[in-house]
Amino acid sequence: MTLMQMEYVIALYKEGSMNKAAKKFFISQSALSSTLKNLEEELGTTLFERSNQGLTPTSDGEYLISQISPIVEYSRNIEQRFAQKKYSDGLKLSVSCQRYPFCLQAFIKFLHSNDASVEKLRFKECDLGEVIQDVYNQTSDIGIIFISDNTNEYMQKQLTSYGIQFKLLKAIRPKVFMRKGHPLSGKDIISTEDLYDYPMVAYENGDSTVYNFSEECLCANAYDFDRLILISDRASFYPLLAETDAVSTGTGIMPETYADDRIIALPLSDQNELMNIGYIYLNGVPLPATADEYIGILKNIMECYS
User: Fold this and answer.
1) Strand locations in 228-274, DSSP E?
2) DSSP state for residue 217 in the 8-state scheme
3) What pTM was computed for the model?
């Protein structure tokens, strides 16, 4: 039994609802239900009774909860202890972000200007749910994420529930990525409808069925595309676009040497939804000066490509 499974069980007990517990971990209800079922099979018992009213722990479930609650609490205390200690140990900047090349460019620029003075650095590219968890657990000072106009209300509620604040850096009108010489590249006007004739490349997230956690500003739900290619890293993203007729959507910001010069970014004529790029941080935890410096570098980069 893993620590994450323990946290799931405790959340299910506290929330009394599969749906509410799933939202706390930024995963789907079906994914959490499957995890619970697997755990029950592993232990050979039923932990929760399911009904229209919600979840009720069985006697075995109550016993398990009583035993694992101190373990989870001890684990959280240990994480907080070492998260607070990291600055005295020389870790001066820790950033988690969604997979945007301009975030890496800003990090490298920060490193160049602080090469001799910064002892430890951390830079992590991951999906949105993981970025939020890193900031919440204080393993990252800040997280760089994207919130669309359509998902703003939902995401703000989620962030507030974690005591996390979102600060807007820049609102960007989305572009479509494709290779040079793509059949669409010669069109004067490219619409959302044009994209459905080609494979759509999208990043997987912790739960790839949740639209609110999409990495791209998809003009429609990615699953509306007949041909969908799910990937997990930028190393796959560029060759897929450069060597096929696949397309994707995003900020259109492709810093030189950090992207692939075989790929171009073109505007979408009927896309009015903005990509709100910003950073998140934990309320009540002062940002180190290095985080402020990194944010300033990131702002300058984004302005250069506006």
Assistant:
1) 228-231, 248-250, 263-267
2) -
3) 0.72
Residue with tokens 């990525």, as numbered in its chain = 177
Digit-coded pLDDT (tens) for 134-175: 999 889 999 999 998 888 888 888 898 889 999 999 998 888
Sorted by where each starts, the structural domains of the chain and their CATH numbers stand as 3-84 (1.10.10.10), 86-171+276-304 (3.40.190.10), 174-271 (3.40.190.10)
Amino acid, res. 161: S
Under a CB-based contact definition with an 8 Å cutoff, are residues 176 and 248 in contact?
yes
**In contact, 213 and 129? CB cutoff 8 Å:** yes
Coil, strand or helix at 264: strand
**Backbone phi, psi, residue 24, to 5°:** -65, -25
pLDDT of residue 25 exceeding 70, the answer is: yes
- Specify which residues 50 forms β-bridges with: 55
Contacts of 122 (CB under 8 A, 6+ apart): 91, 93, 94, 95, 139, 140
* Other beta carbons less than 10 A from residue 43's beta carbon: 14
DSSP conformation class of 146? E
Looking up tokens 């692939």, which residue turns up? Answer: 260
Q: What are phi and psi of 65, to 5 degrees?
A: -60, -40
Please report the pLDDT score of residue 203 as a whole number.
85
**Minimal CA–CA distance to 181: which of 264, 286, 104?**
264
